[in-house]
Design brief:
Number of domains: 1
CATH architecture: 3-Layer(aba) Sandwich
Order of helices and strands: EHEHEHEHEHEHHE
Strand order of the largest sheet: 3-2-1-4-5-6-7
Bound molecules: NADP nicotinamide-adenine-dinucleotide phosphate
Structural class: alpha/beta
Number of strands: 7
CATH class: Alpha Beta
Shape: globular
Amino acid sequence: MANGMVGQRAIVMGGTSGIGLAAARLLVEEGAEVVVAGRDGAKIDAALQLLGPKARGEQVDASSADDLKAFYSRQSGFDHLVITVSGAKGAGNFRELPLNELRGGFEAKFWPQIMSAQLSLDTINSNGSITFLTAISARNVSPGISGLAAINAAIEAMVPILAVELAPLRVNAVSPGVVDTPWWNWLPEEQRAAALKFYEDQAPVGRVGQPEDIAKAICYLIDNTFVTGTVLEVDGGLRLK
Ligand SMILES: NC(=O)c1ccc[n+]([C@@H]2O[C@H](COP(=O)([O-])OP(=O)(O)OC[C@H]3O[C@@H](n4cnc5c(N)ncnc54)[C@H](OP(=O)(O)O)[C@@H]3O)[C@@H](O)[C@H]2O)c1
């Protein structure tokens, strides 16, 4: 990072696992003070072991407006918000897709990410940044992912408009391809390995992503004060296949 992050304060909503944890780690290495937030206390403890004394952890459910309001009221100002809150629901062929599953997908990802951003606005430094995490599914034309496309594209559609409305606060998103994180643990081990191998073979770069690949992109968007309203694709070229 050109400027380093010394003296900067960052919150990673969903920073206790996978991409968010890798982003928190890189931010700490660059000198930032970091708060990682998630629902599970055990994950927070494990994350803090890894991150060391420059990090703090807080238990927050980002699908609850009350939880978020209380959380932000406890922060005494911060510069950067990274929102890596996930959801795994909403996939399936459209004909058979139960619409309550798709609603559940919006409840687990779209609403928590948008609420996390909106409720931060009184506390975040207006010269800082918000970075959302979307997904390759927003633009990838694959059968079975129309629901995931809708959830992620809904966030991506808001990014450039928020970048104009909320300026000078910068607003961006990173759109990852397939990344080897605990997100995939909903699959039984054998199926998980087969799925990652499938995408590894598909990707022009010949591998799936590691959380650190995405963390570097997040930190780039935080650091480069000339970038706003951008959705940065970091997918090993998978979207091209
Ligand atoms: N992995 C991939 O292949 C991939 C691909 C494309 C896009 N993405 C996107 O990248 C982002 C990060 O994914 P990941 O792979 O790093 O997933 P992950 O390892 O499952 O991490 C998700 C994080 O979000 C937290 N979280 C989930 N729901 C929350 C809530 N309601 N409130 C607060 N925290 C919550 C989790 O902690 P708790 O469970 O303790 O709350 C965890 O820290 C997600 O938006 C995901 O959709 C991932």
